Amino acid sequence: MYGYFALVYITPAVEFIGIELSTFNVLSASLMVGIMIIPMVSSLSEDAMSAVPDSLRQAGYGMGATKFEVSTGVVIPAAVSGIFASFILALSRAIGETMIVTVAMGMRARMFAPESIADVPAELAYIATNSGSTMTAAIINLGLSDLAGGTTAFYSLFAIGLLLFTMTFLMNLASDIVANRFREEYQ
Could you read off the pLDDT of 30-63 as tens digits, one per residue? Predict the structure, then answer.
């Protein structure tokens, strides 16, 4: 549904502001994934801030702080591990999202190969405004094709899977490290 929304509404809206796009494009898919993870980040961050004990808020008010000062000086620092964990969790979800991206971006793989450093912005703009493919879609396409063992496509299948596993593992590891580093326990 999100992918269809990106295809039918986001792409024409972006074209309306003057950016020329192909029907399937990376920009609309990226915007839709960004919109999709906003509720997750806000909900988890709100839960983290709600978990801060009321006694800390009351102590801030007792010191003469305003609501804004208590929010920014007491509640957010006390909830920073939960807030940061919500961002990492949402980023992990965005990385793993395939259907939105497949529907809105298409399944045409593109190679990022600028000839010089000066060509990088133009190459990135070209990639963002045209179709692309996710690593998950590449795994599916390779897995459904007729693969012979020992070929480049066979090894590519495992390399893409290993890369996805490594990215997921590193995101989870970073989340655990940050959560443990900044976690505060209250009585």
Answer: 899 899 899 999 999 999 999 899 999 999 999 9
Supply the range of the domain harboring residue 121. Answer: 2-182
- The CATH number assigned to the domain holding 122 equals 1.10.3720.10
Give domain status of residue 20, yes or no: yes
Mean pLDDT of the chain: 85
Inside any domain, residue 187: no
pLDDT in tens, 127-185: 788 887 778 778 888 878 788 888 888 898 889 889 988 988 888 888 788 777 776 66
CA distance 90 to 50: 19
Count: domains in the chain: 1
